[in-house]
Automatic annotation (TrEMBL):
This is D-inositol-3-phosphate glycosyltransferase. Residues 18-177 form the Glycosyltransferase subfamily 4-like N-terminal domain. It is an enzyme of class 2 (transferase). The gene is mshA_17. Keywords: Glycosyltransferase, Transferase. Its EC number is 2.4.1.250. InterPro entries: Glyco_trans_1, Glyco_trans_4-like_N, GlycosylTfrase_MSMEG0565. The keyword Glycoprotein does not apply. It comes from the Bacteria. Residues 197-351 form the Glycosyl transferase family domain.
């Protein structure tokens, strides 16, 4: 090594704006700015570009046409990622780093074939699947890795205690400048285009998903409307590889039953995927941001909202309780619509009493992509040294 730049390959599952993809791009940028040679690999359907520009080299793995089922989709993307890496000198990289199960399996198969020496994997969170193929792919993507990283202490403990895998915690960062609390020229036009005239506006990022607890948020919003009749709920983003259609239909049916129309200028606005600059603009426009998820790896949206100067309502569960407190957020019990509605009302009343002058800046200062890159580099170099296996015994695995 001796001060020479590392050749680092980062792998992500999509070109669309999801938390893990944002993490990969921002980590890549920070590693690049630290003087490393970084290439980012991502599967792409129909030549779709990465949603955000990067100073790193981007390799798009063409995804062949496939059926609509999730198993076929995952298998097709694994094969696409393998082919892209093989075409770009797989063995020439010092570090191969998967951020998801799709790329983790691509690297595991290449390692088994003797093409690469090994790889590291970041686990953001794990999902519950009913299909045996998906369960095994998810397991193999971390079990076959030489080292596992997690974005929160919560998931580091889970990986050790529930899955028998040793892991190291490497926190996310937040680009404060990107979300700074000053209205940009395009903010007003974007909000007009989406039909946002509500007073107040409650924003949730991530689309309509069971993991995001959108149905419970809907129930809470209906309660909020009893005291804030002109309120709007904005559900932004939602580009996902998983099938959320059944849950979305339940959401639509329940909204109709509650008498809450969905559409442009309506009480509920569902935006779908948005341009990259839209989310910071929406966070600056929102009067409160809701993050009442049932399961998250870290919850980067919380830091982004606070960087935009917007109060946040957050599930009082891990990992949030590991780095937040009542000075920087309004807590809610995620399974209780009345609790969520009460927290929204607190957030809308004097900004929830959140200390934006002292506590929020102190919190944001703890999370920088520069520091995340430094931590990654320390772990990368440790993994390049001769070592004993770090895997814990697997007796707890089913």
């Amino acid at each position: 090594m001796n001060g020479m730049p590392l050749r680092i390959a980062l792998f992500t599952h999509s070109v669309n704006p999801r938390g893990g993809v944002v993490h990969t791009l921002e980590l890549g940028r920070a590693l690049y700015e630290a003087g490393q040679d970084v290439t980012i690999f991502a599967p792409s359907v129909g030549g779709a570009p990465m949603f955000r520009e990067s100073p790193c080299r981007i390799v798009l793995a063409p995804v062949a046409a496939h059926g609509d089922d999730t198993v076929t989709m995952v298998h097709t993307r694994i094969e696409a990622m393998k082919s892209a890496l093989l075409a770009n000198g797989a063995a020439s990289f010092d570090i191969l780093h998967a951020q998801d199960s799709i790329s983790g399996n691509a690297l595991a198969e290449l390692r088994e074939a003797g093409v690469i020496r090994g790889f590291v994997r970041t686990v953001h969170h794990l999902d519950g699947f009913g299909d045996a193929h998906l369960i095994e792919w998810q397991r193999r993507a971390y079990a076959d890795a030489d080292a596992v990283f997690c974005v929160s202490e919560t998931w580091t403990r889970k990986m050790r205690n529930e899955f028998g895998t040793a892991a190291s915690t490497v926190n996310n960062g937040v680009d404060i400048g990107r979300f700074r609390a000053s209205r940009e020229a395009g903010d007003v036009s974007l909000c007009a285009r989406l039909g946002l005239g509500g007073k107040p506006v409650v924003l949730a990022v991530g689309g309509i998903e069971e993991r995001k607890n959108t149905l419970q948020l809907l129930e809470a919003f209906a309660l909020l409307k009893q005291t804030h009749g002109a309120a709007q709920l904005v559900l932004a983003g939602g580009a996902s590889l998983l099938d959320h259609d059944a849950y979305t239909r339940r959401f639509m049916a329940r909204a109709a039953k509650l008498g809450l129309p969905i559409g442009h200028g309506k009480p509920i606005v569902v935006t779908g995927a948005l341009d990259d600059e839209a989310i910071p603009a929406l966070m600056r426009r929102a009067d409160a941001v809701s993050m009442v998820s049932l399961r998250e790896g870290f919850g980067l949206v919380v830091l982004e909202a606070l960087a935009a100067g917007t109060p946040v309502v957050v599930s009082r569960i891990e990992p949030f309780t590991g780095y937040l407190d009542e000075r920087v957020c309004c807590w809610a019990q995620p399974h209780d619509a009345h609790s969520i509605a009460g927290a929204l009302r607190r957030a809308l009343d004097e900004r929830g009493g959140i200390d934006f002058d002292s506590a929020v800046p102190a919190l944001l200062a703890q999370f920088s992509w520069r520091e995340s890159a430094r931590r990654h580099l320390d772990l990368y170099r440790r993994e390049m040294q001769p070592r004993q296996p770090s895997r814990l015994p697997h007796e707890s695995l089913i």
